[in-house]
Amino acid sequence: MTHDDPLNARVVLITGAGRRVGAATARRLHRQGWRVLLHCFHSQRTAHLLADELNAFRPDSARVLIANLSDARAVTALAVASIDAYGRLDALVNNASSFYPTPVGTTSQAQWDDLFASNARAPFFLSQALTPALQASARGSIVNVIDIHAEFPLAQHTVYCMAKAALGTMTKSLAKELAPRVRVNGVAPGAIAWPEGSGEMSAVLQEKILASVPLGRVGGFDSIADTIAFLIEGSDYISGQIIAVDGGRSVWG
Ligand SMILES: NC(=O)c1ccc[n+]([C@@H]2O[C@H](COP(=O)([O-])OP(=O)(O)OC[C@H]3O[C@@H](n4cnc5c(N)ncnc54)[C@H](OP(=O)(O)O)[C@@H]3O)[C@@H](O)[C@H]2O)c1
Question: Structure pTM?
Answer without folding.
Answer: 0.96
